Amino acid sequence: KKVYKHIETWRNRPIEGEFPYLYLDGIVLKRSWAGEIKNVSVLVAIGVDQDGYRKILGVQEGHKEDRSGWSGFLEHLKARGLRGVRLVISDACMGLIESVADYYPDADWQRCKVHFYRNVFSHVPRNKTRQVAAMLKAIHAQEHREAAQDKANRVVEELRRMRLGKAADLVEAKI
Description:
Elements: H1 2-11, E1 21-33, E2 36-48, E3 54-61, H2 67-79, E4 87-90, H3 94-103, E5 108-111, H4 113-121, H5 129-140, H6 145-161, H7 165-173
Parallel strand pairs: 1-4, 4-5
Antiparallel strand pairs: 1-2, 2-3
Helix pairs in contact: 2-3, 5-6, 6-7
């Protein structure tokens, strides 16, 4: 009971300052409740302030990773003072993207590259994962958009040559 009081104080504290970058993600954990094990979603928001420092802005348990869960979480963050959001980085959860548009309509959205990599790796044999990871990282390491697009085209060709068509299709869809 003593710990929960501090957690609730932290969860409801005002959010001060602007956070131009907002990372959103949800994880599903197992929780024991009245002797029963159930899955529970935990939604997390990490902001990057104008000086480039990361800060955990909020954590909320019990909501699903759907539009209503994300809307409730974003409403809570906004009510606590979250402002200045220019870019939201997350997975491609449709409910999340729609909720962001409702609460931060001026913010752009970007797919998290870690989630994208995981989607690509799900179509890659385990013994080829490191090679494909290096190829994907090479795309993101380019200094200019045009160079990144050229590199991505070459990666798609190489993935097809390696007979990894579904992985190639995912990369090609993002070009």
